[in-house]
Protein backbone atom coordinates (compact mmCIF):
# COMPACT_ATOMS: atom_id res chain seq x y z
CA UNK A 1 0.00 0.00 0.00
CA UNK A 2 1.38 3.46 -0.94
CA UNK A 3 2.25 5.71 2.00
CA UNK A 4 1.96 9.53 2.03
CA UNK A 5 3.15 12.23 4.42
CA UNK A 6 -0.07 14.25 3.88
CA UNK A 7 -3.24 13.73 1.87
CA UNK A 8 -5.23 16.81 0.88
CA UNK A 9 -8.86 15.95 0.12
CA UNK A 10 -10.48 18.19 -2.52
CA UNK A 11 -8.86 19.83 -5.54
CA UNK A 12 -10.57 23.24 -5.43
CA UNK A 13 -8.65 26.53 -5.04
CA UNK A 14 -8.04 25.90 -1.35
CA UNK A 15 -6.99 22.24 -1.59
CA UNK A 16 -4.72 22.86 -4.59
CA UNK A 17 -3.09 25.88 -2.90
CA UNK A 18 -2.59 23.95 0.36
CA UNK A 19 -1.05 20.96 -1.44
CA UNK A 20 1.31 23.09 -3.55
CA UNK A 21 2.45 25.17 -0.55
CA UNK A 22 2.96 22.06 1.56
CA UNK A 23 4.99 20.32 -1.17
CA UNK A 24 7.26 23.41 -1.43
CA UNK A 25 7.67 23.65 2.37
CA UNK A 26 8.44 19.93 2.71
CA UNK A 27 11.07 20.15 -0.05
CA UNK A 28 12.75 23.06 1.78
CA UNK A 29 13.30 20.88 4.87
CA UNK A 30 14.57 17.90 2.85
CA UNK A 31 11.27 16.01 2.54
CA UNK A 32 9.84 14.45 -0.63
CA UNK A 33 7.18 16.61 -2.34
CA UNK A 34 5.72 13.51 -4.02
CA UNK A 35 4.75 12.29 -0.54
CA UNK A 36 2.04 14.99 -0.56
CA UNK A 37 -1.05 13.83 -2.46
CA UNK A 38 -4.01 15.82 -3.66
CA UNK A 39 -7.22 13.82 -4.13
CA UNK A 40 -10.00 15.18 -6.35
CA UNK A 41 -13.12 13.16 -7.19
CA UNK A 42 -13.76 14.96 -10.51
CA UNK A 43 -11.24 17.34 -12.09
CA UNK A 44 -9.36 20.21 -10.42
CA UNK A 45 -11.48 23.28 -9.80
CA UNK A 46 -14.79 21.57 -10.66
CA UNK A 47 -16.51 22.33 -7.33
CA UNK A 48 -17.43 25.77 -6.01
CA UNK A 49 -14.13 27.00 -7.48
CA UNK A 50 -15.61 26.58 -10.99
CA UNK A 51 -17.95 29.50 -10.26
CA UNK A 52 -15.58 32.05 -8.78
CA UNK A 53 -15.13 35.37 -10.57
CA UNK A 54 -11.43 35.90 -9.81
CA UNK A 55 -11.92 38.96 -7.62
CA UNK A 56 -9.38 39.38 -4.82
CA UNK A 57 -10.49 42.00 -2.28
CA UNK A 58 -9.10 42.58 1.20
CA UNK A 59 -11.64 44.98 2.75
CA UNK A 60 -13.69 43.11 5.30
CA UNK A 61 -15.64 44.10 8.41
CA UNK A 62 -13.89 41.35 10.34
CA UNK A 63 -10.32 42.43 11.13
CA UNK A 64 -8.82 38.91 11.18
CA UNK A 65 -10.40 38.08 7.80
CA UNK A 66 -9.17 41.38 6.34
CA UNK A 67 -5.67 40.63 7.57
CA UNK A 68 -5.67 37.16 5.97
CA UNK A 69 -7.14 38.56 2.74
CA UNK A 70 -4.35 41.16 2.58
CA UNK A 71 -1.69 38.42 2.98
CA UNK A 72 -3.45 36.43 0.26
CA UNK A 73 -3.59 39.43 -2.11
CA UNK A 74 0.14 40.05 -1.62
CA UNK A 75 0.84 36.36 -2.31
CA UNK A 76 -1.15 36.40 -5.56
CA UNK A 77 0.89 39.44 -6.65
CA UNK A 78 4.12 37.49 -5.96
CA UNK A 79 2.93 34.11 -7.19
CA UNK A 80 5.73 33.79 -9.77
CA UNK A 81 8.32 33.91 -6.99
CA UNK A 82 6.34 31.64 -4.65
CA UNK A 83 5.11 28.90 -7.01
CA UNK A 84 7.03 29.62 -10.23
CA UNK A 85 3.84 30.24 -12.24
CA UNK A 86 2.84 33.14 -14.50
CA UNK A 87 -0.48 34.73 -13.70
CA UNK A 88 -1.74 37.91 -15.28
CA UNK A 89 -3.16 40.29 -12.72
CA UNK A 90 -5.49 43.16 -13.59
CA UNK A 91 -5.13 45.92 -10.99
CA UNK A 92 -8.75 46.97 -11.32
CA UNK A 93 -9.42 48.25 -7.80
CA UNK A 94 -12.86 47.82 -6.25
CA UNK A 95 -15.73 50.25 -5.91
CA UNK A 96 -18.06 49.60 -2.98
CA UNK A 97 -21.53 51.09 -3.33
CA UNK A 98 -24.31 51.43 -0.76
CA UNK A 99 -27.35 53.63 -0.20
CA UNK A 100 -26.57 56.77 1.81
CA UNK A 101 -27.72 56.76 5.42
CA UNK A 102 -30.04 59.45 6.82
CA UNK A 103 -27.15 61.81 7.67
CA UNK A 104 -25.63 61.39 4.19
CA UNK A 105 -22.96 58.96 5.30
CA UNK A 106 -22.62 55.33 6.36
CA UNK A 107 -21.28 55.02 9.90
CA UNK A 108 -20.63 51.28 9.66
CA UNK A 109 -18.47 51.66 6.55
CA UNK A 110 -16.69 54.74 8.00
CA UNK A 111 -15.75 52.61 11.02
CA UNK A 112 -14.54 49.78 8.75
CA UNK A 113 -12.46 52.27 6.77
CA UNK A 114 -10.81 53.56 9.99
CA UNK A 115 -10.18 50.05 11.27
CA UNK A 116 -8.62 48.86 8.01
CA UNK A 117 -5.93 51.57 8.26
CA UNK A 118 -4.27 49.49 11.00
CA UNK A 119 -3.61 46.49 8.67
CA UNK A 120 -2.99 48.60 6.42
CA UNK A 121 -5.69 48.39 3.72
CA UNK A 122 -6.63 51.44 1.70
CA UNK A 123 -10.46 51.71 1.78
CA UNK A 124 -11.58 55.33 1.47
CA UNK A 125 -14.84 57.20 0.95
CA UNK A 126 -14.84 58.96 -2.42
CA UNK A 127 -17.18 61.48 -4.04
CA UNK A 128 -19.70 60.71 -6.78
CA UNK A 129 -17.50 62.64 -9.25
CA UNK A 130 -14.46 60.53 -8.38
CA UNK A 131 -16.56 57.35 -8.69
CA UNK A 132 -17.62 58.49 -12.19
CA UNK A 133 -13.97 58.94 -13.13
CA UNK A 134 -13.15 55.39 -11.98
CA UNK A 135 -16.10 53.73 -13.73
CA UNK A 136 -16.81 53.38 -17.45
CA UNK A 137 -19.71 55.56 -18.66
CA UNK A 138 -22.27 52.73 -18.83
CA UNK A 139 -22.33 52.21 -15.05
CA UNK A 140 -25.09 54.32 -13.50
CA UNK A 141 -24.16 55.99 -10.21
CA UNK A 142 -26.67 58.01 -8.19
CA UNK A 143 -26.72 60.94 -5.71
CA UNK A 144 -28.38 58.82 -2.99
CA UNK A 145 -25.48 56.36 -3.04
CA UNK A 146 -22.22 56.39 -1.11
CA UNK A 147 -18.92 55.17 -2.57
CA UNK A 148 -15.80 53.60 -1.09
CA UNK A 149 -12.72 52.81 -3.15
CA UNK A 150 -10.33 49.92 -2.52
CA UNK A 151 -7.54 50.66 -5.04
CA UNK A 152 -5.45 47.56 -4.25
CA UNK A 153 -8.17 45.01 -5.17
CA UNK A 154 -7.14 42.80 -8.09
CA UNK A 155 -8.87 40.77 -10.76
CA UNK A 156 -7.64 37.40 -12.02
CA UNK A 157 -8.92 35.39 -14.97
CA UNK A 158 -10.60 32.29 -13.41
CA UNK A 159 -9.78 30.08 -16.42
CA UNK A 160 -6.16 31.14 -16.26
CA UNK A 161 -6.06 30.51 -12.50
CA UNK A 162 -7.21 26.92 -13.10
CA UNK A 163 -4.58 26.34 -15.82
CA UNK A 164 -1.89 27.74 -13.56
CA UNK A 165 -2.97 25.57 -10.62
CA UNK A 166 -2.23 22.54 -12.84
CA UNK A 167 1.12 24.12 -13.70
CA UNK A 168 1.83 24.79 -10.01
CA UNK A 169 1.03 21.17 -9.16
CA UNK A 170 3.33 19.93 -11.93
CA UNK A 171 6.17 22.26 -10.83
CA UNK A 172 5.84 21.18 -7.21
CA UNK A 173 6.12 17.40 -8.00
CA UNK A 174 3.29 16.47 -5.64
CA UNK A 175 1.13 13.40 -6.41
CA UNK A 176 -2.24 14.16 -7.99
CA UNK A 177 -5.13 11.65 -7.86
CA UNK A 178 -7.76 13.10 -10.18
CA UNK A 179 -11.05 11.29 -10.76
CA UNK A 180 -10.67 9.42 -7.45
CA UNK A 181 -13.14 9.88 -4.62
CA UNK A 182 -12.48 9.48 -0.91
CA UNK A 183 -15.13 6.99 0.17
CA UNK A 184 -13.96 6.08 3.67
CA UNK A 185 -11.29 6.17 6.36
CA UNK A 186 -9.54 3.78 8.73
CA UNK A 187 -8.44 4.96 12.18
CA UNK A 188 -6.07 3.53 14.77
CA UNK A 189 -6.85 3.07 18.50
CA UNK A 190 -5.99 6.73 19.19
CA UNK A 191 -8.65 7.82 16.66
CA UNK A 192 -6.00 9.05 14.20
CA UNK A 193 -6.75 8.55 10.50
CA UNK A 194 -4.15 6.09 9.16
CA UNK A 195 -5.73 5.02 5.85
CA UNK A 196 -7.87 6.72 3.22
CA UNK A 197 -10.10 4.53 1.10
CA UNK A 198 -10.38 5.77 -2.49
CA UNK A 199 -12.67 4.44 -5.22
CA UNK A 200 -9.94 2.20 -6.69
CA UNK A 201 -7.38 1.73 -3.94
CA UNK A 202 -6.41 2.54 -0.36
CA UNK A 203 -3.48 4.70 0.77
CA UNK A 204 -1.66 5.09 4.07
CA UNK A 205 -1.39 8.61 5.45
CA UNK A 206 0.33 10.37 8.32
CA UNK A 207 -1.68 13.61 8.07
CA UNK A 208 -4.95 14.66 6.42
CA UNK A 209 -6.08 18.12 5.27
CA UNK A 210 -9.76 18.50 4.54
CA UNK A 211 -10.50 20.86 1.63
CA UNK A 212 -13.68 19.18 0.38
CA UNK A 213 -15.67 22.41 0.84
CA UNK A 214 -19.44 21.91 1.03
CA UNK A 215 -19.00 18.13 0.71
CA UNK A 216 -17.06 18.02 4.01
CA UNK A 217 -19.97 17.51 6.47
CA UNK A 218 -21.19 14.40 4.64
CA UNK A 219 -17.71 12.97 4.18
CA UNK A 220 -16.66 13.38 7.81
CA UNK A 221 -20.03 12.24 9.15
CA UNK A 222 -18.63 8.73 8.58
CA UNK A 223 -16.03 9.48 11.28
CA UNK A 224 -18.53 11.05 13.65
CA UNK A 225 -16.89 14.46 13.07
CA UNK A 226 -19.20 17.46 12.69
CA UNK A 227 -17.98 20.07 10.23
CA UNK A 228 -19.94 23.32 10.58
CA UNK A 229 -20.22 24.34 6.92
CA UNK A 230 -23.43 25.44 5.30
CA UNK A 231 -24.00 26.65 1.76
CA UNK A 232 -25.41 30.17 1.48
CA UNK A 233 -26.79 31.70 -1.74
CA UNK A 234 -24.81 34.65 -3.13
CA UNK A 235 -25.92 37.31 -5.60
CA UNK A 236 -23.26 38.32 -8.07
CA UNK A 237 -23.44 40.78 -10.94
CA UNK A 238 -20.43 40.87 -13.26
CA UNK A 239 -19.94 43.31 -16.13
CA UNK A 240 -17.39 42.99 -18.89
CA UNK A 241 -16.08 46.04 -20.72
CA UNK A 242 -14.60 45.85 -24.21
CA UNK A 243 -10.84 45.64 -24.31
CA UNK A 244 -10.99 46.30 -28.07
CA UNK A 245 -12.72 49.66 -27.87
CA UNK A 246 -10.81 50.98 -24.89
CA UNK A 247 -7.43 49.43 -25.56
CA UNK A 248 -7.19 48.80 -21.85
CA UNK A 249 -9.93 48.17 -19.32
CA UNK A 250 -10.51 50.59 -16.48
CA UNK A 251 -13.38 48.59 -15.05
CA UNK A 252 -13.22 48.43 -11.26
CA UNK A 253 -14.69 45.55 -9.32
CA UNK A 254 -18.19 46.59 -8.24
CA UNK A 255 -18.77 45.10 -4.82
CA UNK A 256 -21.77 44.48 -2.63
CA UNK A 257 -24.31 46.53 -4.57
CA UNK A 258 -26.83 43.71 -4.69
CA UNK A 259 -26.25 42.70 -1.08
CA UNK A 260 -26.54 46.27 0.17
CA UNK A 261 -29.87 46.64 -1.61
CA UNK A 262 -31.10 43.47 0.03
CA UNK A 263 -30.05 44.61 3.49
CA UNK A 264 -32.02 47.86 3.21
C1 LIG B 1 -20.83 32.73 -7.99
C2 LIG B 1 -19.58 32.75 -7.10
C3 LIG B 1 -18.60 33.73 -7.33
C4 LIG B 1 -17.46 33.77 -6.50
N1 LIG B 1 -16.51 34.72 -6.75
C5 LIG B 1 -15.40 34.78 -5.96
C6 LIG B 1 -14.40 35.74 -6.22
O1 LIG B 1 -14.49 36.53 -7.15
N2 LIG B 1 -13.32 35.80 -5.40
C7 LIG B 1 -13.18 34.91 -4.35
O2 LIG B 1 -12.17 34.98 -3.64
N3 LIG B 1 -14.12 33.96 -4.10
C8 LIG B 1 -15.21 33.87 -4.87
N4 LIG B 1 -16.16 32.92 -4.63
C9 LIG B 1 -15.94 31.98 -3.51
C10 LIG B 1 -14.93 30.90 -3.97
O3 LIG B 1 -15.34 30.39 -5.22
C11 LIG B 1 -14.89 29.76 -2.93
O4 LIG B 1 -14.62 30.28 -1.65
C12 LIG B 1 -13.78 28.78 -3.28
O5 LIG B 1 -13.87 28.36 -4.62
C13 LIG B 1 -13.88 27.57 -2.37
O6 LIG B 1 -12.86 26.69 -2.75
P1 LIG B 1 -12.68 25.30 -2.04
O7 LIG B 1 -11.40 24.72 -2.54
O8 LIG B 1 -12.85 25.46 -0.57
O9 LIG B 1 -13.98 24.43 -2.45
P2 LIG B 1 -14.35 23.71 -3.83
O10 LIG B 1 -13.89 24.43 -5.02
O11 LIG B 1 -15.79 23.34 -3.76
O12 LIG B 1 -13.47 22.38 -3.76
C14 LIG B 1 -13.85 21.23 -3.06
C15 LIG B 1 -13.46 20.06 -3.94
O13 LIG B 1 -13.57 18.85 -3.18
C16 LIG B 1 -13.94 17.85 -4.08
N5 LIG B 1 -14.47 16.74 -3.26
C17 LIG B 1 -15.60 16.75 -2.54
N6 LIG B 1 -15.77 15.57 -1.92
C18 LIG B 1 -14.72 14.80 -2.26
C19 LIG B 1 -14.34 13.45 -1.97
N7 LIG B 1 -15.08 12.66 -1.19
N8 LIG B 1 -13.19 12.97 -2.54
C20 LIG B 1 -12.42 13.76 -3.34
N9 LIG B 1 -12.75 15.02 -3.67
C21 LIG B 1 -13.88 15.53 -3.14
C22 LIG B 1 -14.97 18.50 -4.97
O14 LIG B 1 -15.14 17.82 -6.20
C23 LIG B 1 -14.37 19.89 -5.15
O15 LIG B 1 -13.60 20.02 -6.33
C24 LIG B 1 -17.31 32.83 -5.44
C25 LIG B 1 -18.28 31.85 -5.23
C26 LIG B 1 -19.40 31.80 -6.06
C27 LIG B 1 -20.43 30.71 -5.83
Structure description:
With 264 residues, this protein is α/β, with parallel strands linked by helices. It folds into two domains: 3-53 and 157-221, 3-Layer(bba) Sandwich (FAD/NAD(P)-binding domain), CATH 3.50.50; 94-152 and 237-263, no CATH class. The protein has nine helices and twelve strands. The chain has helices spanning 13-28, 63-77, 79-83, 107-116, 128-134, 158-172, 216-221, 243-246, 257-263, and strands spanning 3-9, 36-40, 55-56, 94-99, 124-126, 145-150, 154-155, 175-178, 182-187, 193-198, 202-210, 253-255. Residues 9-15, 39-42, 46-49, 51-55, 181-182, 211-213, 215, 219, 234, 236 line the site of flavin-adenine dinucleotide (FAD).
Name the descriptors.
264 residues, alpha/beta, 2 domains, 12 strands, binds flavin-adenine dinucleotide
Kindly state the percentage of residues in helix.
25-40%
Q: Strands of the largest sheet, in order across it?
A: 8-2-1-11-10-9
**Global structural class:** alpha/beta
Number of helices: 9
Which helices and strands occur, and which strands form pairs?
Elements: E1 3-9, H1 13-28, E2 36-40, E3 55-56, H2 63-77, H3 79-83, E4 94-99, H4 107-116, E5 124-126, H5 128-134, E6 145-150, E7 154-155, H6 158-172, E8 175-178, E9 182-187, E10 193-198, E11 202-210, H7 216-221, H8 243-246, E12 253-255, H9 257-263
Parallel strand pairs: 1-2, 1-11, 2-8, 4-12
Antiparallel strand pairs: 3-7, 4-6, 5-6, 9-10, 10-11
Helix pairs in contact: 1-6
Flavin-adenine dinucleotide binds next to α1 and β2.
Amino acid sequence: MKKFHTAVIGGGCLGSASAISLAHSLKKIGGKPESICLIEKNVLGSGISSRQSGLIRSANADEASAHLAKISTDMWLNIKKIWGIDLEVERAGALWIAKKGKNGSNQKWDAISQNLKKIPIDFKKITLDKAHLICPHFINLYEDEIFYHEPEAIQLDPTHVRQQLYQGIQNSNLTLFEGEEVVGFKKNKSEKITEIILTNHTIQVEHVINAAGPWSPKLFEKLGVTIPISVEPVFVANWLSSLASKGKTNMPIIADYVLSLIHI
